[in-house]
Design brief:
With about 475 residues, this protein is an alpha/beta fold. It is about 50% helix and about 10% strand. It has 3 domains: about 110 residues, no CATH class; about 160 residues, no CATH class; about 180 residues, Restriction Endonuclease (3-Layer(aba) Sandwich).
C-alpha cells in the first residue's frame, strides 16, 4: 500500500484510463489477459508475477472503467508501456479506509484478499465442482427439488453440464486467440467436426443468455452497484457476470479469459439462481451432503452425520473419528455480501450470522462431549478434538481479518471446500489423523492443506466424475 502522499487517486486513474478508446484499450487488456491465462493453465500460481503491476485484477478494473466511462476515440492505441503504467496507477490507488477506525488495516487486507486470491484457483476444481455438487450431491438429497435437471434447464436454458461444457470451449478459444471469439468461424467447413461436440446453437445460447453482453448492458449493470464513493474501485464488476463483451463488429472479446472460468464455477451458478424460492434453503443440505461425500473417502474414519439431541435438534453437522484426532465440523453454504467482501462494516453482521453461528455450534458440541452426553457416546475421549468450519466460498482472511471470532474450547479453523477436497484425496490412502491433530486454529483457508501436504495424495474421484460429466458431454 502506497503512502498517502504518493498514492494515486481514483479520479486520476479514471482520467488516465479514458485517454484511450475502449476498443483499443480492451484489445490490449485482453491480449495480456490471454497471456496470463495460458500461464495459469500450466500453473495457477504463476499467473501473478510479483515484480510487475500488470495483474489480473488491475486489468479487469481497467477494462470495466474503459467500458463504463470511455469514449470511442482515444488519443492513440495504448502501448505495452501504457498498459503497464495504468496497472501501476491502479496498484498505487489510495485506500482511505486504511486510516479509518479500529480494524481498518485488517479490513484493507480482507479487500485485498477477495480481490486477488481468486485468480490462483485451480481450473480443474472450478469446472469439476458444479456437477459434483449441484448434480452428484443433490441427487442424494431427497428434498432438493430445486436441483433437478428440469429446474436447471428452466433457469439456464440448458443443464449445468451443458453450460460448463460450452463455457469451457469459449474459455479455451478466448485464451488461445488473445481474448477474441468470432462465432462466425463455426460456419466454416473445418468446424463441422467441432460442432459435433460443441453445437453452435448451444454456444450462442450460452453467450446470449449467460456469458455475453454489449457495452450498454455492462454499463447498466455497473450503475446498479452500490458502494461508498471512496471504494468505487472495489464495487462489483459486471464483467464477472458477463465476461464476454460483444463488440461493434459482432465479435466477442474476453478482457480476461479467466473471468469465464470464474463465471462457470459454483459461485457464478449460485448467482444465476439465488433469487429463486427454495434454492438457497435447499443448497444448505446439498452442500452438507457434498462435504459428507468427501469425508467418507477418508481411510480409517468413522463419519457421523447430523448429531441430534432429542428427536429434532441438530447439534453439529459432522463428527469424524480418526485414530489420532476427532474432528467436529460445521458446514456453511452462506455467502458474504458484496459490502462484507470489501471489508466494510457489513462484515461484522456477516461474520456473526455465518462463522459466529458455526463457532457456537462447535462450542456446544464440545461441551456436550465433555459432559458425556449420550448423543456423543460414540466419541472416544482418548484423543484431541479439533473444530473445522467448512465454507462453500473462500472466506479469505477469516481468522486474521474478520474481527473478533467467538472463543472456542478447542482449536478451530475455517476451511474452504477446496481444502476438504484436498484432504479427501490425501486421506484415501493415508491416515491423516496425526497431521490434523496439529491444527491450531491460527490460520484459515490453507491450514488443512498445510497440515497434510507432506503426505502423498491421489486424484479426487468425486471431482474426476464431475469433470468427466461436463467435459465428455455428448450434446
Amino acid at each position: 500500500m502506497a503512502s498517502r502522499s504518493l498514492a494515486a487517486t481514483f479520479p486520476r486513474f479514471l482520467r488516465e484510463v479514458t485517454r484511450f478508446g475502449p476498443t483499443e484499450l480492451l484489445t490490449a487488456v485482453a491480449r495480456e489477459g490471454a497471456v496470463q491465462t495460458l500461464r495459469h493453465r500450466s500453473d495457477p500460481h504463476s499467473v501473478i508475477d510479483g515484480s510487475s503491476p500488470v495483474t489480473p485484477w488491475a486489468l479487469v478494473e481497467i477494462a470495466r472503467e474503459s467500458i463504463v466511462h470511455g469514449v470511442q476515440q482515444g488519443q492513440h492505441p495504448p502501448t505495452a508501456s501504457d498498459l503497464h503504467r495504468l496497472c501501476a496507477l491502479f496498484t498505487d490507488l489510495d485506500d482511505p479506509l486504511s486510516e479509518g477506525p479500529h480494524y481498518a488495516i485488517e479490513r484493507f487486507f480482507v479487500r485485498l484478499f477477495f480481490e486477488q486470491f481468486r485468480w490462483q484457483i485451480s481450473e480443474f476444481e472450478e469446472l469439476a465442482r458444479p456437477h459434483a455438487l449441484f448434480v452428484g450431491a443433490a441427487a442424494q438429497v431427497p428434498g432438493a427439488a430445486a436441483f433437478r435437471e428440469e429446474r436447471w434447464r428452466a433457469a439456464l436454458g440448458c443443464s449445468v453440464d451443458e453450460l460448463v461444457h460450452a463455457g469451457f470451449f469459449l474459455f479455451v478459444w478466448a485464451s488461445q486467440h488473445e481474448g477474441w471469439v468470432d462465432l462466425r468461424w463455426m460456419d466454416l467447413p473445418h468446424f463441422a467436426e467441432v460442432q459435433k461436440h460443441f453445437p453452435k446453437s448451444l454456444i450462442e445460447h450460452v453467450v446470449s443468455g449467460r456469458l455475453g453482453a454489449d457495452p450498454a448492458q455492462l454499463r447498466r449493470m455497473d450503475s446498479e452497484a452500490v458502494v461508498p464513493e471512496n471504494v468505487r474501485e472495489h464495487r462489483f464488476n459486471p464483467l464477472s457476470a458477463r465476461p464476454l463483451v460483444r463488440m461493434r463488429d459482432g465479435r466477442l472479446l474476453a478482457p480476461h479469459p479467466l473471468l469465464i472460468l470464474h463465471r462457470l464455477g459454483v459461485t457464478g451458478l449460485y448467482y444465476d439462481r439465488v433469487g429463486e424460492p427454495g434454492f438457497t434453503d435447499q443448497l444448505g443440505p446439498v452442500f452438507e451432503e457434498y462435504v459428507g461425500m468427501q469425508l467418507r473417502l477418508l481411510s480409517n474414519a468413522h463419519v457421523e452425520h447430523s448429531v441430534m439431541v432429542g428427536r429434532s435438534e441438530e447439534v453439529i453437522d459432522y463428527v469424524v473419528v480418526l485414530p489420532d484426532v476427532v474432528l467436529l465440523l460445521e458446514v456453511k453454504s452462506t455467502r458474504l455480501t458484496e459490502l462484507a467482501r470489501i471489508g466494510l462494516d457489513q462484515l461484522d453482521d456477516d461474520r456473526d450470522r455465518t462463522l459466529g453461528k458455526a463457532y457456537a455450534q462447535i462450542t456446544r458440541a464440545e461441551r456436550l462431549i465433555t459432559e458425556d452426553h449420550p448423543a456423543f457416546e460414540f466419541v472416544p475421549r482418548d484423543r484431541p478434538r479439533r473444530g473445522i468450519v467448512v465454507t462453500l466460498e473462500p472466506y479469505w482472511g477469516a481468522v486474521s481479518g474478520f474481527g473478533a471470532l467467538p472463543a472456542t474450547p478447542i482449536p478451530t479453523t475455517v476451511a474452504h471446500v477446496r481444502e476438504i477436497e484436498y484432504l479427501a484425496s490425501t486421506g484415501i490412502n493415508n491416515d491423516v489423523g496425526a497431521a490434523l491433530a496439529g491444527l491450531t486454529g491460527a490460520h484459515s483457508n490453507n491450514a488443512i492443506h498445510a497440515a497434510v501436504e507432506h503426505l502423498d495424495h491421489v486424484r479426487n474421484p468425486i471431482l474426476d466424475r464431475g469433470w468427466d460429466a461436463a467435459m465428455s458431454l455428448v450434446v
